[in-house]
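Bench notes, afternoon.
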Amino acid sequence: MIDAGQAGTSKTAARHSTGAYVMTQYCQTEILITACQSGDRLALAKLLARHHPELRARAEARMDPALKTRLDPDDILQEVYIDVARQIDQFENRGPGSFLAWVQAILNQKLVNARRAVHREMRDVDREVPADRPVADSYWNLLDALYVDSGTPSRVVQRHEALSALFVSLADLSDSHRQLIQLRFLDGLSVAEVARRLGKSEAAVVALSKRALEALRQAVDRLGDFSRGA
């Protein structure tokens, strides 16, 4: 039987252990913030991966039914992470939790913008409503497309790590390359449809697709084994 003294000692040890873990996590986060504000994209991907499950749950919980018929939470987070990557040098570190709060504020605004866009689209009866796309696997399929000719596997153990790396890499692309990848590989539009929307020939779209994928592959590769399996 454990006496009162032993029980008290165990509780104290547990508190110390929890406190040490929290402090370690905080120190690691501080190191990553300093690194990514110095231009380290791998540090940024790791930092976002730490918070991805919580951010995804927050996005999903705050998406109304109409929004969920058009977008997946990862679609929203892609836009959030692109903004974070572009604005990370503007982030003011005010202590524990400030980075997550900053990203959540960006997420909240993206959700507001997405709701407005979807409901505006629903009110516009003359606007063509796009067919639902299989968003659940579109980002995984994009990772596969990057390495289809190389024989290098793109699957990783942690989904949130893969998506964080992919979204940070997308932020480093030119607007034209990112738009092409969005339409062709994430929205799943045909070459003909992309050509019509962009006002280009189908041959030009095929050539641009190859260049956009190569640019994205190089951006992902710069993140090393964090972004894809070995």
